């Protein structure tokens, strides 16, 4: 039995297919072109995060309109489609309240501008570099190179610290010195450490603050300012410089000691270690 192709592939259908193909091709070129031009025009005005969101809105909106145009060319009833989409939307909305909450929280995060792509943040007990900001979550690359996904609702309801928001930071180092030391001399030595370290900033000037009497030392807070990208080098070099300067000046960094007393407050209990030699004799038969 012969199959009549002309019944299904007539000139009208062929013309419709060509129109739809041309429509799709032109629309894709226009959508990608507009997204590219907008991205280039706002490069220096907005943050990476805002540029990414605007680009996605343009692309998603364009392809949605293109889908409706193609359906119209195929003689689908778009009004009925909208009605069906409304019913489906209600069902999906009831079943995905958490997702909707994350989307709304994402808009709050974008409007607040608390962080951007590439910032180092701490959220609760998690920390890392912001890798991606999406509709439902943000993704963080941790210090040990793991990808951590945090829902937007969790981010918006948690305490967030942006470590690299400002160009300079302050590093706090706790230092303990023995009670016998001259504290004015200790202050001068610490100031000299900050002056000689090329990574420590002169302005704002270093902070030296007596914190109180510790169990075995006088506790001092030594804080220096530095550029945010030099964190590791500053911490290592300053601690080494303090140790070398204290050794050079004869300043003692104490550690806890354990003492035994006989009952008098000022006299130590004498302890003498005696090594006993054992002799092994032969038994006589």
UniProtKB/TrEMBL annotation:
A GO term from the CC aspect: plasma membrane
Gene3D superfamilies: 1.10.287.1260, 2.30.30.60, 3.30.70.100
Topological type in the membrane: Multi-pass membrane protein
Pfam families membership: MS_channel_2nd, MS_channel_3rd
Identification of the protein by name: Mechanosensitive ion channel-like protein
Keyword annotations: Cell membrane, Membrane, Transmembrane, Transmembrane helix
Record lineage: Bacteria, Pseudomonadati, Bacteroidota, Bacteroidia, Marinilabiliales
PROSITE patterns: UPF0003
């Amino acid at each position: 039995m012969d199959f009549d192709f002309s019944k299904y592939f007539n000139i009208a259908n062929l013309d419709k297919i060509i129109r739809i193909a041309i429509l799709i091709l032109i629309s894709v070129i226009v959508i990608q072109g507009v997204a590219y031009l907008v991205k280039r025009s706002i490069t220096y005005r907005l943050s990476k995060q805002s540029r990414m969101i605007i680009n996605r809105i343009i692309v998603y909106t364009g392809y949605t309109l293109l889908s409706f145009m193609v359906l119209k060319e195929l003689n689908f009833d778009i009004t009925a489609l909208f009605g069906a989409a409304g019913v489906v939307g209600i069902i999906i909305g009831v079943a995905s309240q958490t997702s909707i909450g994350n989307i709304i929280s994402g808009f709050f995060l974008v409007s607040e501008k608390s962080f951007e792509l590439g910032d180092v943040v701490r959220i609760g007990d998690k920390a890392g570099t912001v890798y991606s900001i999406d509709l439902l979550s943000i993704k963080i690359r941790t210090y040990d190179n793991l990808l951590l996904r945090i829902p937007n609702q969790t981010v918006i309801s948690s305490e967030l610290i942006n470590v690299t928001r400002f160009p300079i930071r302050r590093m706090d180092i706790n230092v303990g010195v023995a009670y016998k030391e001259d504290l004015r001399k200790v202050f001068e030595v610490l100031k000299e450490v900050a002056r000689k370290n090329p990574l420590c900033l002169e302005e704002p000037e270093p902070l030296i603050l007596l914190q109180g009497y510790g169990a075995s030392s006088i506790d001092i807070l030594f804080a220096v300012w530095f550029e945010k990208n030099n964190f590791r080098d500053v911490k290592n070099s300053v601690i080494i410089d303090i140790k070398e300067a204290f050794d050079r000046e004869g300043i003692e960094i104490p550690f806890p000691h354990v003492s035994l007393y006989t009952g008098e407050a000022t006299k130590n209990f004498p302890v003498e270690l005696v090594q006993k030699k054992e002799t092994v004799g032969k038994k006589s038969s």
